[in-house]
Amino acid sequence: MKAIVNVFLKEGVLDPQGKAVHHALGSLGFDNVTDVRIGKQIVLQLDESDPVKARKELQEMAETLLANTVIEDYDIEIVE
Amino acid sequence: MKRLQVSILQFPGTNCDFDTVYAFKRLGHETTLVWHKEERLPEATDLVVVPGGFSYGDYLRSGSIARFSPVMKAVQAYAAEGGKVLGICNGFQILTEARLLPGALKRNDNLHFISRHQHLKVISTDNAFLNLCTEGEVLNIPIAHHDGNYFVDDETLDDMEKNGQILLRYCDAEGQPMVVNGSVRQVAGICNKEKNVFGLMPHPERAMESILGSEDGSKMLEGFAAV
Q: Any idea what the CATH number is for the domain that residue B222 is in?
């Protein structure tokens, strides 16, 4: 099973990298960008066929290591 | 002054371990280097120092992988019993990841690695670390970090201010607040509510001799032996 965990800084936590990229896009003439957030995508291969079990385990992985929930949110996608 | 047994942790990628040994030896203390695979701290430990560097290459987030090293379980237990722990730079990041200190350290707001001498204002001295400093005093200590942008929610920060948990703030030579890396309210160093776990981004162990630009660091580190 393939799964993707996306990790982003929480809303309200200033994202310095997103801000810098937003600024750079503006100077390239992309004036219609209103916000940029930069995150991480963690792609995992799991030896697990039960998506419910997998999701539970992925949530535990995200809470303990993959995201720092003091500043970050995450979402989990089970791809195949 | 008391002669302390200082245990200094080493993770793969730690690079301030020997500077820290030098600093505490210079103050007349005994030091032991403790490899991250160790499951116990030396018996007579008076102070654990988590030194600076780039543990595990700063992969994922600075300090996020080191916090799960075997030795960190021993540090958690040691801190829970009231043992004193000091995290410097990457050590500070490891202690926040381990939830031994509140908040988190994000990428500097200007995205640069900042390496230079920096003035710091002493905020709280009612603790085992900064008791030889005076409130409002301006210190000059090197900083060298990419992820020093301290963040904690406003409510927690208000509580920390009330409890005397804010130890140091970035400032200019006159003690006026200075934005260095985007930290909330210019926070450079903090402690936990129980005041036995300390963390700061600046490097006191690099400010031990005036010939190297400042000896303000020795006044800070000496505090642990004065209580």
A: 3.40.50.880
